[in-house]
Amino acid sequence: MSKLKVAVLISGRGSNMGSLARACMDPDFPAEIVLVLSNRPNVLGLELAREHDLPIRVVDHTAYPDREAHEEAICAAMTEAGAELVCMAGYMRIVGQTLLGKWRGKVVNIHPSLLPSFRGVDTHERAIDAGVRVHGCTVHYVSPELDAGPIIAQAVVPLHPNDDAETLSTRVLDMEHKLYPHAVRLIAEKMVRWSGDEAVEDRKVTIDDVLMLPEIKTAEDQA
Ligand code: GAR
């Protein structure tokens, strides 16, 4: 069976790209990375992509007169690489009409909160300030409105009373690394898809497929 060809867009550390790359090393994983594209040169994620022998492109946004021209260049690189799905993985640019016009329904993003709570930045600080008991991450289709597209899958982590943004972000990131490959598998195996009216259609999908819960440890387990 042919594998779904994925372009991964990054802007920095690239640990989610790394988790997708590791998943793709499994011969049974139904997707492969055909391009890692960064809008910033010299970021750690590019080093990681090189270690995985992945094709790399830097399309530096500062070299283009406007968002439209930058996105045209990204679209050209993704088309040239034969990409069928675009995974934003810590890609810290707002996606505009030029990219979405061509790729809408084929662009997904991972966000460090249980959307629709805590769209935007500083999600961990805001979750702690809000006093929520659970937090997590979401993979969703990208729509013109920031962090608002149809949800594909979510993973939950507990928020402990002594958490700070750093401990919480580590716990969430660990879950992100499990959730993103899982969500890409759901898409590649056509268990979840984007429909024209923006709803995520599912086929044979159970709640366990789209929601990852942490293993709950009892006091006895921890003793
Ligand atoms: C991840 O936590 C990802 O969810 C977040 O940036 C981090 C990137 O880490 N993305 C966003 O906040 C997008 N709104 P990584 O570069 O190590 O994958």
Which descriptor suits the 3D outline? Answer: globular
CATH class of the largest domain: Alpha Beta
Write out the distinct hetero groups bound to the structure.
glycinamide ribonucleotide
- End-to-end separation in angstroms reads 47 Å
Structural class: alpha/beta
Tally of DSSP helical segments: 8
- Give the name of the CATH architecture of the largest domain: 3-Layer(aba) Sandwich
> Can you give the helix content as a percent range?
25-40%
Q: How many domains?
A: 2
Largest β-sheet summary: 8 strands, mixed
User: How many β-strands, per DSSP?
Assistant: 10
Low-confidence stretches: none
Could you walk me through the main structural features you see in this protein, from its secondary elements to its overall organization?
This protein is an alpha/beta fold and 223 residues long. The chain folds into two domains: 103 residues, Rossmann fold (3-Layer(aba) Sandwich); 105 residues, Rossmann fold, CATH 3.40.50.170. It has eight helices and ten strands. Strands 3-2-1-4-5-6-7-10 form an eight-stranded mixed beta sheet, with helices on both faces. A two-stranded antiparallel sheet has the order 8-9. Helix 2 links the parallel strand 2 and strand 3. Helix 1 packs parallel to helix 6 and helix 3 runs parallel beside helix 4. It is globular, with a radius of gyration of 17 Å. Glycinamide ribonucleotide binds next to helix 1, strand 5 and helix 6.
Q: What's this entry about, in short?
A:
By secondary structure, this protein is an alpha/beta fold. The chain is built from 8 helices and 10 strands. Strand 8 and strand 9 form a beta hairpin.
